[in-house]
Amino acid sequence: MGRRTMDAESFLEFASQVTKWKMYPYFDVAHSVLCALHVRDDLGPGALAFSRKHPISCWLSTMLVVFAGGMLSAALLGEPPLAPLKNTQQLVIASAVWYLVFYTPFDIGYSIAKFLPVKLVFSVMKEIYRCKKVHDGVLHAAKLYPNAYIIMILIGTLKGNGASFTKIIERLLRGVWTPTSIETLQPSFTTKACIIASVVFVLDIKSDLISAPHAFVYVFVIGFFIYFKVFSSMILGIHEPMLPFENLICAIFFGGIFDYTTKAFKSTKDDKADTKKKD
């Protein structure tokens, strides 16, 4: 019994330390690397040619991906949208990473960043970084709007995955217009995960429904992100783990059963009509 108590206390102490981890500079580097990789992979086979011909456009689109969450949430909360760029250290890190991914000799920077063990480490770090962003977004919104739970969830989601919501603008900066890439049309699993994490943090901060210590909830959300975003997606290849639940919810609450019933009834009615005609 005493050993279990000691284990629980040790874990709680570890969880408390995790909540205090500084994101600068290592987690900022991991975040910037994966953002630059996203831009380069989105450019496709012509990425290098584009980066040589349009370096400013390439840099701008990468910076937008890196700072999208902060810029979007700031704009919605009535703060200067460019405020995230005032952090010169983060801007220098993001620019240096962008340069290494696109312009190193023999493409060494890109090759190292894409090397699976390196990418796995950066991905784990990014999910810890994402949890921090979601948590800070919910807290910031809660201070400004103490009873506006939807705003807290919205800002937490945008802080955690703002790049998906600015994808249409980021591509437009590179001369590509893709109006169907709006995140609200086909939300990615990352967005759904950020919504879930935001709801958990709101319940933890603003209600008594979660009795666990705050540090434990924080580490639980980190584990949730790492398991589904890194282990499940990169290792097992499961990119939409929530799809079965979404299909069930849509069938029950968003007209799926009624549409199926109506279709089946209409099909039966048409079959009977065809049978009468043949008779």
TrEMBL record:
Keywords: Ion channel, Ion transport, Membrane, Potassium, Potassium channel, Potassium transport, Transmembrane, Transmembrane helix, Transport. The chain crosses the membrane at residues 58-77, 97-116, 215-236, 242-262. It is found in: Endomembrane system. Pfam families: TRIC. GO terms for molecular function: identical protein binding; potassium channel activity. It is a multi-pass membrane protein. It comes from the Eukaryota. The keyword Transport applies. InterPro entries: TRIC_channel. One of its GO terms (cellular component) is endomembrane system. PANTHER family: GH25683P, TRIMERIC INTRACELLULAR CATION CHANNEL. Belongs to the TMEM38 family. This is Trimeric intracellular cation channel type 1B.1. It comes from Aphis craccivora.
